[in-house]
Fold:
Amino acid sequence: MIGGAQGSGVDLAASAFARSCVSAGLWVYGSREYYSNIKGLHSYFEIRTSGRQIRSKVEGVDLLSTFDAETLVRHSDAVNPSGGIIYDPGLSETPIDKVETLYKDEVKQVQGRLKQQGLSADISGILEEAKRRDVKLFAVPYGALIQDVARRLGTSELSRLNRIVNVLAASVSLALLKLDRYYIGESVRQAFSASRKQKLIDMNIAGVERAYEFAGERFKDELSVRLSPMQNMSRMFVVGSQAVAMGKIVGGCRLQTYYPITPASDESEFLEAHENFALQDGVAKDGKGSVVVVQTEDEIAAMTMAIGGALAGTRAATSTSGPGFSLMTEGMGWAGMNEVPVVITLYSRGGPSTGMPTRTEQGDLKFALNASHGEFPRIVLCSGDMEECFYDAFRAMNYAERYQLPVIHLVDKGLANSNMTILPPDPNLTDIERGKLIMTAKDGGTPSDGEYRRFAFTQDGISPRAVLGLKGYRFWNTGDEHDELGHINENAENRVKMMTKRMTKLETADREIPLADKVNFYAAKGRPDVTLVSWGSSKGAILEGMELLAKKEINPELLQRRMASPFPTQAVKERLSQAKLVVDIEQNYTAQMAAVISEKTQINIRNRIVKFNGRPISQNEIYDSVRQIVAKPEANERVILTHGA
Structure:
């Protein structure tokens, strides 16, 4: 774990550490936590690395690297015995109550804890407390190291060189873990290659060299863990929002609209940075493709602009979080009435209102299922990991056009801001399907009487769809109920037929979409003791928690819902009706998916594990809470998880 004030380079240090591990052929999982202000408050990043694939965070830290006093106060007690803490010795005499960014109740709590142990209420007391738990302490005078680097480079610009403190922290960490400096050197070169500033690269490489020298000279006490390079297979190191963006590009999205909002903006900014790209099949004459990314004046405009692009025949999408989605709902209702294929990526964060903008939550499921007034069909996808983020973004573009309706791709913030190594997704696993689209007069769709019925009644509920402006295919769009041509029509019989036509699309989608794209099932080895039910980013923690449970002779299985609408009712009902004990796991207060399951299947899941403090679930929390329920189901119908700094 590495921590410091937001804006001090914590992300860069974590990225340098993580990319060094990736370069060494290791698997990596990273989890980022930060406050919603732009600069100054506490930020920290946890990086797990292993010789096997990993998908979640764990409790306990082997090495804590700190820039400031607050990180020591907040996280020193998370360091495992025989683990280590890297700190600046200049902070030792800092009183706890002088760390201005700590809340008053936090200060009192830490002071009381130290007083009980007879320790001083300052950083030296925190360090002594850690030492008593057999945690190794590594004092790193960052200022002195920066001056050494300045002398080597022959410069007196210390203010500029202060920026390398993050690289120093990452380098000392890797030196203590015995990973060759070559790997962080490569990481630094890659990180700054785009800037084309050789001086910047030289400055940071000099920092790497001095940090490794210092660690070798000063630290003879070894950590209990070390990193060894492995054979480097073909892998990608991605952030969740980047996986979504790549899925959209490969899925044919050519218009993305957005208004800046945390954490959704990361996706659109990634698309902006990759607006031009090579086409694998060279569809264009020069083999190039592009996506138009537009930052609009608000979310209402983002939604309606995406609708306009879709009406013109472009694969269009928008991206937002809860407050922005609230503004989009009227436009989404218009898209539902007019059967417009548009994709909305909804990043779920802590609410209500502004809530906790930079913290994770799964509180938007029911909102996504019921957003906007009235009834109209929509498909709701819920991704559980990076790979699903990519493929679901791809499929969302297909579903929107194939079934001519809004598709909501639900991704919780914990997944959007995590990063990990994955095997490269295969874009050939799914073909682009545009459904009953009429792009030219040759595509057909005009009845014998010469009138084009955009909303023609069909058995599957899906009508031939012409793009705006196509000669001979005139039609009308209105927010009102309408007839087959699009003219306003409030006739009772027409209303029944039109509503039935639109809603039939969900039956068609439910019938045509493979079950494997709606639900994942991870079977137990032998007869299961407990059936875990979940959705979204909890997937990784649950799968790894299941491995721990199996070692204690508890046999778990997992039913992961990937599609909330249309809901795979029969499959879920069959599986849960046979279960010995069912436990629902969600990151919200009310266990929203459990309520949806009850509504669809009439099965009430009594045992529930919920977490709603804005921090992601760890594999250890899954292990402990499931064991607790299996031991006494009646006494533990609702278990609330609270871990997280």
